[in-house]
Design a protein that fits this description.
With 461 residues, the chain is α/β, with parallel strands linked by helices. It has helices at residues 3-22, 53-64, 86-98, 109-125, 148-170, 176-182, 193-201, 219-231, 296-299, 313-320, 351-386, 397-407, 434-460; strands spanning 140-145, 183-188, 205-209, 235-242, 254-257, 264-268, 286-289, 291-294, 307-312, 413-417, 420-424. It has a domain at 3-82: dopa decarboxylase, N-terminal domain (Up-down Bundle), CATH 1.20.1340.10. It binds pyridoxal-5'-phosphate. Its cofactor is pyridoxal 5'-phosphate.
């Protein structure tokens, strides 16, 4: 493909993408294909001779689209939202064209410098304390990780390296393997599965603390567990705190960068964090934290992948520093070399999409977007509250989900808190509006009533 053809095909592709997104309501959110469907549609080997663009382009509708779950259909209410916006898509095109690998400042200075700037912008939008940001001139600073799972893992590995370092200073003959086997990290029993995985990958015990009836972690439960672990000779060193709810009260937070009782607290606000750009949705965050992350790729119109993490950058980079000669450069130390801040060496120019989105929506546009989604979620909540026939039958919930998803007009997934199964209704797509929420409720209620009737019928047998 030469440049002239690229220009022509590029225009066609942009048209296709705009048509796809503008008409996405016409496609079912959930595809009806069976596993292995694609094998029937494609040859079992790559072509020997080059094919024509027209033939590849035609296969988007024939081969790909039948098996796509349309996350941006307004009736997609499953899992959690993933962001998508035209400015984000345009930035990714530019990032792909530049195609740099920004592992150090020298490997592409703009890639690093724009990231430094937009990470401070994001921190200020969320009103995070300055200490967490580059502009403090201190230990803070931000980095774009691919996902929240990586942010949690990086936090845990940094905390692990930090505690080993501290203990080694006290006792230079320390047996590292012995210390590693006694390290213990904590999260709540409601924590995201990525936290348990961070413990598995980081090879440390991850203890789940039981939450109260409001699914909140009580400070006293954590304290009791820490004290009893210390008495057994274990070494508590890390705790993960998730913020997954949007409060509806004007609250402000006052977190400080630092450790408390030698425990590194990592705050995971992957989903809810974007809402903190609205002062009225900020949670009550007090005390000390060493790292904080949220996903602009969930709820801030920045396309996947983009998880923003701010932290004690010195301790994080110390944990990951391996510095072979060929990666070094003469300006080292003046700007971050982001390869020390995350797991891979290579990194894409992801800050471009944050920059485009922040500039083209502005704080006001993004706040409006978040507030609209919160309003829609409350509309749905009111439908549920106003219907006194509504109750949840744990035993039939999976059948209910199957019925809703087989019907295909909306897409939901179930979840479980303690022993209660429930249906999760998430406002995901940027195009979802009030009518979609009403439609989902009517659809959902309808299936639910059939199942209630079935259940009552079964009970009378
Ligand atoms: C969605 C979510 C994650 C996982 O996000 P990834 O970026 O896909 O790793 C982790 N924690 C919380 C609280 C989440 O909501």
């Amino acid at each position: 493909m030469d440049a002239d053809e690229f220009r022509k095909r590029g225009r066609e592709m942009i048209d296709y993408v705009a048509d796809y997104l503008e008409n996405i309501r016409d496609r079912r959110p959930l595809p009806s294909v069976q596993p292995g469907f694609m094998k029937e549609l494609l040859p079992d080997h790559a072509p020997e001779n080059p094919e024509k663009w027209e033939d590849v382009f035609k296969d988007i509708e024939r081969v790909i689209m039948p098996g796509v779950t349309h996350w941006h259909n307004p009736q997609f209410h499953a899992y959690f939202p993933t962001s998508n916006s035209y400015p984000g898509i345009l930035a990714d095109i530019l990032s792909d064209a530049i195609g740099c690998i920004g592992f150090s400042w020298a490997s592409s200075p703009s890639c690093t410098e724009l990231e430094v700037i937009v990470m401070d912008w994001l921190g200020k939008l969320l009103d995070l304390p300055k200490e967490f940001l580059f502009c403090s001139g201190g230990r803070g600073g931000g980095v774009i990780q691919g996902t929240a799972s990586e942010a949690t893992l990086v936090a845990l590995l940094s905390a692990r390296s930090h505690v080993l370092h501290r203990l080694k200073e006290k006792d230079p003959n320390l047996n590292e393997a012995h210390v590693m086997s006694r390290l213990v990290a904590y999260c709540s029993d409601q924590s995201h599965s990525s936290v348990e995985r961070a413990g598995l990958i980081g090879a440390v015990q991850m203890k789940k603390i039981e939450t109260d009836e409001k699914s909140s972690l009580r400070g006293s439960s954590l304290r009791d567990m820490i004290e009893s672990d210390q008495a057994k000779g274990l070494i508590p060193f890390f705790r993960n705190q998730a913020y997954s709810r949007v409060n509806n009260k004007a609250l402000c937070y006052s977190i400080k960068l630092g450790e408390q009782n030698n425990i590194w607290m990592h705050i995971d606000a992957a989903y809810a964090g974007s809402a903190f750009i609205c002062p009225e949705f900020r949670p009550l965050l007090n005390g000390y934290a060493m790292s904080f992350n949220f996903n602009p790729h969930k709820w801030m119109l920045v396309n996947f992948d983009c998880s923003a993490m701010v932290k004690d950058s010195k301790l994080v980079s110390e944990a990951f520093t391996v510095d072979p000669l060929y990666l070094q450069h003469e300006n080292q130390g003046k700007m971050p070399d982001y390869r020390h801040w995350h797991i891979p060496l290579g990194r894409r120019f992801r800050s471009l999409k944050v920059w485009f989105v922040l500039r083209l929506y502005g704080l006001k546009g993004l706040q409006e977007y978040i507030r609209k989604d919160v309003r829609l979620a409350h509309e749905f909540e009111n439908f549920v509250k106003d219907d006194n026939r509504f109750e949840i039958f744990g035993e039939v919930i999976l059948g209910l989900i199957e019925a809703i998803n087989d019907d295909g007009r909306i897409h939901l997934v179930p979840s479980k808190v303690k022993d209660t199964y429930f249906l999760r209704f998430a406002i995901c797509a940027s195009r979802t509006n009030s009518d979609d929420v009403k439609f989902a409720w009517e659809n959902y209620k309808f299936v639910h009533l059939i199942l209630c009737i079935c259940k009552q019928y079964k009970n009378t047998l």
